[in-house]
Please model this.
Amino acid sequence: MYDQCGIEIASTGASKRRFLSLLQRMSLTRHFVSRDSFAVRSLRVGGAFKQFPRTTLERDVGEILRAKQPGIRVDLDHPDVTFLCVISSTRFLLGELTHSRVPGLIASRRPRKRPVFHPSTMPPKLARTLVNLARPPSRGVLLDPFCGVGGILLEAVAVGCKVIGLDADPRMVRGARANLRHYTAEPFGLIVGDATRIPVSAVDSIVTDPPYGREASTRGRKLDALLREFLPSARATLSEGGFLCVCDIQLSRIARAAGFQPVESHLAYVHRNLTRRILVLKRK
Model:
């Protein structure tokens, strides 16, 4: 869910003068080790300090950094290290960027761009979030027991997982196969089956988005009863210490009885009428 991550270097109250004074006193040598070039970017949060342009702060910070590391050059296109100044109404902060999401990383897998579309398909950004929260090991086997047309499976393949999809509706399984093949992703297995009787012996992670009581996808069964039967089957399939990540369902109250330990819960804003609940469970 993050666009950029980094290491905090310096932070002060909302004063440009104090911020620059702090940087002048600091030793920043470790941030330039084995690096020949740098760039300074800035981000203004909530319209703070509009009285001075961000480019002015970038220039002032850049001059301090160059004075501290003689010979270092500015490269705005391909710098060895990028520093980010964050300006808010209460803080000035300088950090070193360590990770940035690649632009367009998941845009090509948007639901409408796939061969088979279903309106209940989870957006790829949220699907990738669930996959990451399930902590699949490198080249591990990940199962989605309510796979639909394969949105979660696509994101799991993208991070190197072997995937197994299960759905009670043969049309959904066919759709998942078509979508995976469209992105040259070969599934470990796609099965028409019942999530309360998972026909798989062992997987490393389970990630799923249950059907929320849509009668067509629950085969007329009450969702609460379906999930109560699903959890023991999931536990029997999941390797010891493995994680189950599920979206939008408050399973904490029945998860412990089924042999799971709730370890994380999150709210993910989708739009003004929808906020998803994410729960991460660990197999005891």
Remarks:
- DSSP finds eight helices and twelve strands in the chain.
- The mean pLDDT is 91.
- The first strand starts at residue 4 and ends at 13.
- The longest helix spans residues 54-68.
